[in-house]
Amino acid sequence: MAASSILPWRYRIGGLALTAVVTLILVYLILPQFIVLPLSFSDKSYLSFPPTGWSSQWYVKIAENLSWAEATANSLIIGIPAALLSMIFGTLAALSLKRGAWKGAGVMSAAVVAPTMLPHVILAIGLYPMMIKFGLLGTHLAAIIGHTIIGIPLVFITVTAVLASQNGALELAAMTLGATPWQTFWRVTFPMIRIGVFIGGILAFAASFDELMLSLFLTGAGTRTLPKLIWEQLNEFLTPTIAAVATLIFAFTLVLLVIASFLQAVGSRNQVTANG
Amino acid sequence: MAKHGAHISLIDVEKVYGAVTALHPTNLDILPGEFFSIIGPSGSGKTTLLGAIAGFTPPSNGRIEVDKIDIAGLPPYRRNIGMVFQNYALFPHLSVFENIAFPLKLRKLPKKVIAERVAAMLATVRLTQMADRKPSQLSGGQQQRVALARAAVYDPRMLLMDEPLGALDKNLREEMQNEIKAFHRKISATVLYVTHDQDEATAMSDRIAIMNAGRVAQCGAPRELYEHPCSAFVASFLGGANLFKVTAVEDRGSGAVTCRTADNHVYNAVGTSLSVTPDKPHVLCVRPEAVDIADNDNVSADGFNRAKGSVVDAVYTAGTFRYQVDIGASEPVSVRRAATHRTVMFQPGQEVLVSWPASSTLLIPET
Amino acid sequence: MAQMNPRQDGARKSSSWSAADFNRLLAIPPGAVLALFFLVPIFGVIWRSFSDPAIGLLNYRRLFTDGPYLQSLWLTITTALMVTVLCLVTAYPVAYVMARARTSIQQLIGALVVIPLWTSVVIRSYAWMVVFQRRGILNQALTSTGLVDTPVNFIPGSIAVYVGMVHIMLPFMILPLVANMRSIDGRLLAAAGVLGATPAQAFLRIFLPLSLPGVLAGSALVFMMSLGFYITPALLGGPRHMMAAVLIEEQANRQLDWGLASALATVLLVLTVAVYSVYVRLSNRVEGGLAHGR
Question: Do B136 and A188 touch (CB under 8 A)?
């Protein structure tokens, strides 16, 4: 900071202006949170902001209306298996492509990452007729399959990053010590990528929990997910109920986020160990 | 403890990647209990050779025999080889004890036996106090000793070491060289040691193979390699060497030759390789410590090659004078003399006479 | 060394061991899942665009001759472009400050950037509905200050779409930029200063060129994601700002015109792949240029 004092005044003004602009942008980024939270405690039935009085009626409404609980249950029934499947397939793909030494590895890694890049609507209208043919449309399984495709790249990317930071000689070392590829995986590789796999799983779950497009096409009346229910409500009547739902979801997400960052901290401590 | 080290024979082992030959057909015979080093510049094929023996990179052709049994088709985990890796490759999630116990657990030994053998090994490498630490809590030298212990705890009859001291600083390296030598004597396994550091290899090995461009350039005891290099590459890779390009050779019989160099000096030399490779270009090789340096008006004895020149550089390091003397050749002559040799060092610009015995002047192929 | 694992042994007893073989084996399950539930549906969409209701280019002829569809495609591209530029302009200063700030500030900004990322897109768009609706905050402010007499109808409309989409895409621009800017050695700017560059010159001649890989990565990411964006334009844009994804959903789910929806999706797919390959080309050139010192 001492250095800035010898700069001409216009640079200091520039610095202040930059700080002001950045602050404004950050306020813009965080603004929705500060709208949704107070709105969820509003006493009016329409979206007036700022609220003129406070009540917890919208939270009570959520508790009374069974469709919210049902949608939450559906989101969990779809999200948890989708995350677990993503963890398995994403980790396998990451392990297999780690050194990329085999023919077709390039095509494979492009195919794994592609679902993050392509608009979900394309996958949705592609899966829809397929699920009709399999007789799965409107079942939980249809959405689980769709969300697994979305989740695989997230696990793949996280685990690949962990593998890249890990010393490849460890596996060779295990093999010279007598471990078969199978034993090498369970005793050496997996313990070191475990945290990456879990973090990827959390990301995959969060992606499923927030996914709308595939759910719009693949779930039915009995299997609709939370985002789909919110979506239907938004298109029909705008009440602060949704703000209350949003606040609850945000609180839940925050818990997930804290778990993920805790795991990440543990992981980076182990990483220091690995490099030490 | 192993009764004896393994006898390792490489027979026409070759490794080809597409159009690139990483290792030309190679034959090596490593004797039971030997400390055998492979040295060479990076890309010379030493890692490929090690990988072939460890089983990471199966050779394209040839056989790798351990005590007359071909292991070329076996995966690494069936070879019962101990290996120490460059950065030790200690498992970060396991303690020192668990690291050393790892190969024993895989071999399904009873818990009690495992505990005993790990404890014995920890005592050997003086790390008994550190058993419960994680590798990250150890110093570099301690990690190195854990790696040694882990590689040897199941009594493999051969121990591969891939630049095991590469990550350590100079002082610790020398300490660990002694440590590894002592360790080798204790476990009596055959050691195959890969390094790019020629001093390390010379200090530790019974025999050395020098590799260059995917081939073994020369194989032999350290002293033999130093005193009788078979090519200019070996001569300059192992210690300093003055090399003079030879344009004409006159054979005087029984190994004695007289040579004219590219810069028109005539030197007497010994040359045994001439009969083997008469068509190759040759050089004369003289080690810096074989060269004497004296005042210009001195006369040297018979049987010496001599040249007049002027000192271009003079340096004192650790009890030694090092000179560079211009004698009109393309490169100045390097001279290394013990500082006890003279009280006053020659200074740059001084006219001097350099001389070296014909018996220390070797006529060798350039490649 | 007794049989340690029959499963592995059975497969490999005869042949020599190879890491590549094992890696390929691992790829089979994810490869099969992705082939069946990703590649087959995508190719199904492409096939349907040429075959539903009849084999031929019928759907594409409609797409490229019928005003509204072409208009929607064009709107999709221009919106994605606009959102990318707006994101870049707003993200760059934030990333710059974040990359060069002390750790505590870095963490604060990082949290502010990541929190929206972890909030549902539907809900963030809902928040912007609250802001932009007829009786929303913005209209209250405008009317109470007397800037307008009657509330403005922001929804449905383009301004609301841009504000909402930029908000959602901003973290995807900031994060690659920060990652790139952190890797720029701060001593380079000090060196430029010692060599006589003013801070402005040092920024323009050293920092800006070195940050190009981050700019490219962020822009490509935002542009590709914007092309297929559905939620925000559907909620805030309405029929006035009908982007391709909204149109596809409508054609498929409501008009049941699967052929046209598939053709639109195929065009969107081709666009996304094209943008990606342009990005790969450009980033190779930028990085290559940087590597050669330009």
Answer: no
